[in-house]
Design goal:
Layout (H helix, E strand, L loop, with lengths): L1 H15 L6 E4 L11 E5 L4 E3 L7 E2 L6 E2 L8 E8 L2 E8 L2 E10 L5 E8 L6 E12 L9 E10 L5 E6 L3 E5 L5 E5 L5 E2 L8 E8 L2 E8 L2 E10 L5 E8 L5 E8 L2
Antiparallel strand pairs: 1-12, 1-20, 2-3, 2-11, 3-4, 5-6, 6-7, 7-8, 8-9, 9-10, 10-11, 12-13, 13-14, 15-16, 16-17, 17-18, 18-19, 19-20
C-alpha cells in the first residue's frame, strides 16, 4: 500500500508539472481565412491588389520590379498567363520566396489562389478559394474585381507545430526548422530560421491561455491568443494582423 501511495504521489507530481500546451498540434481546420474581401485590378499597364502585397502598383510585364522592402520580398514579378490565369513571383535578394498562380473559373465566379511558399526548408503550399463579390472594370483581366475567401487549406508540412510551456517560458517548433523560446518577461526573442527575422514576446494569461506578440523591424505586426480547451485536445487561436487590421480564428487538434 505504501508503494502504491508513493507511486500515485509521483504520478501526480509529473502531471502537475506538465502544461496543457505541451505536445504536437495540427491545424486540421484549414488555413486561416482573411476576415475581409480583397480587391484586384489588372490591366495591360498596371497591377495592384489589397492582399498581402497591398499598396504595390507595378507593370505586369513578366519582369522583376522593385517594391518597398518587406520582411519576405523586395521585388515582384506579375504576368498574365492567359485570359483566366495570372502568375506572381515574389523574391528577396534574388531568391524566390513565394510563387502564386491565380486562376478564375470559366464562369468567372471563383478565384483560386495557389501559393508555393519557399521560405522554408521544404515548400509549403497554400490554396485559397474565393467567390466574386464585384466584377472588374471593362477591359480588365478576369481576376480583376472584389473577392471574398470561403475555403483554404495548407499542406501538412506547414500545419504541424510543437508547443512547450513552463512557468518561465513558452516554446514553439515546426518540422521545417523554425523555433523560438520566449520567456514570460515582456522581452522579445528571435524566431530561429525565419528569413523575416521575426521576434516574439509571450505572456501567460492563465494555465490554458497564452498571448503571443510578433515584431519585425521594431514594429508590432501581429498578436495571437492561444487557448487550450478544457479537455486538452484542441487549441483555439485568435489572430490579429496589426499591419492590415485583419482578424482570423482557427483551431489546432492535438496529435495522439
Amino acid at each position: 500500500m505504501l508503494r502504491l501511495v508513493l507511486a500515485l504521489l509521483l504520478l501526480g507530481a509529473v502531471s502537475a508539472g506538465q502544461s496543457p500546451f505541451d505536445g504536437s498540434w495540427v491545424n486540421k481546420m484549414g488555413e486561416r481565412l482573411p476576415e475581409g474581401p480583397i480587391s484586384y485590378s489588372l490591366t495591360e499597364e498596371t497591377f495592384r491588389c489589397s492582399c498581402a502585397i497591398g499598396g504595390i502598383e507595378i507593370k505586369p510585364d513578366g519582369y522583376d520590379h522593385k517594391t518597398p522592402e518587406a520582411a519576405y520580398w523586395d521585388t515582384l514579378n506579375v504576368q498574365a498567363v492567359d485570359a483566366h490565369t495570372v502568375l506572381l513571383i515574389a523574391k528577396k535578394a534574388g531568391r524566390t520566396m513565394f510563387t502564386e498562380v491565380d486562376s478564375v473559373s470559366q464562369d468567372g465566379k471563383t478565384l483560386t489562389q495557389m501559393v508555393k511558399d519557399t521560405t522554408e526548408a521544404e515548400t509549403v503550399t497554400i490554396e485559397t478559394q474565393n467567390h466574386r463579390l464585384e466584377g472588374g472594370r471593362a477591359g480588365s483581366h478576369t481576376t480583376s474585381g472584389i473577392w471574398k475567401a470561403f475555403k483554404a487549406s495548407r499542406s501538412l508540412n506547414g500545419s504541424l507545430i510543437k508547443y512547450t510551456c513552463t512557468k518561465d517560458s513558452f516554446s514553439a517548433e515546426t518540422p521545417l526548422g523554425e523555433r523560438y523560446t520566449a520567456k514570460f518577461d515582456g522581452q522579445f526573442y528571435p524566431v530561429e530560421d525565419d528569413p523575416g527575422h521575426t521576434m516574439v514576446s509571450a505572456k501567460l494569461l492563465d494555465a490554458r491561455t497564452v498571448e503571443l506578440t510578433s515584431k519585425r523591424n521594431g514594429k508590432i505586426v501581429s498578436v495571437s491568443r492561444l487557448s487550450v480547451a478544457p479537455d486538452g485536445n484542441s487549441i483555439h487561436a485568435v489572430f490579429e494582423n496589426k499591419e492590415s487590421g485583419g482578424k482570423a480564428a482557427f483551431d489546432f487538434e492535438k496529435q495522439k
